[in-house]
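re: that chain from earlier
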Amino acid sequence: MTVVGPFGLSVRDQALEADVQAGLAAVEEGLIEATKSEVPFITEAAQHLVRAGGKRFRPLLGMLAAQFGDPYAPGVVPSAVVVELTHLATLYHDDVMDEADVRRGVASANARWGNSVAVLTGDFLFARASHILADLGPEAVRIQAEAFERLVTGQILETAGPRDGRDPVEHYLDVISGKTGSLIAVAGRFGAMMSGADETVVDVLTQYGERLGTAFQLADDVLDIASDSHESGKTPGTDLREGIPTLPVLHLRAQAAKDGRPEDVALCALLDGDLTDDARHAEALAGLRAHPALEQARRDTIRYAEDARATLAPLPECGAKAALVELCDAVVHRAG
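^ sequence. v structure.
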């Protein structure tokens, strides 16, 4: 058993391992090249999160999806670079919106250089992604544009909140389907499509990416509550502090509304208060860590990962399929 990529996926197929490792190395080179500018300061800011590392989850999925066609096809690596650049750009913007201080174990761009530089650097990365995308053809441009629209729509829906009468949990799942699932779906779709895989395979891997993306975000929700900064690469309870209603919090609120237990109502009241106060924030974090709502969110993560695994059933048995199955297990493992 060997380990492939920063995400820590283990594979047992040496040829597959070599292909994926080579693909990820090429993506890394592509990311460095795409973030270079004639202006040294722009290069420094644009490469800030690239050099901080990360799981490279989306490129990994792209490399595995490409195994169902020709993994050496010329569009495979550039398409993975496009997806990862887009993801990185959203992180710069997210950190501004969330007023985050830490990302991937280093100071966030907004904490280091201010909000304006962080936003403009994200825009720079979007521009570089579009430049690469233009060489991949009009169909690739259309797919990326649709995914980007879904991503932005998900962010707007999160900001606006659920409309009157809408179940907050259902609303939230729609949000993360757009914010996270859409781009991970494109990673699988591009990998398969650029490799020349059959259209049925492309469809399967698109659906797989969408479902796995939801599980991936739900695992992040659990980690935001349950992990320390060493595990997650960012400050625990960041979403909590910013009042972002992640799944454990939504489950808590639903339980409090249903049963009215005094301790649940009190915890909800604490969450509604000023969590910029470190003591109140620590108390809220401890309360959620001990609450059944966190375990319920873990079960939801497992369910979506199992749905993603089931989607793979029509694919032929091979090392890449086994790795995609294990990727589902790796996502669940992140959530404990």
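The radius of gyration is 20 Å.
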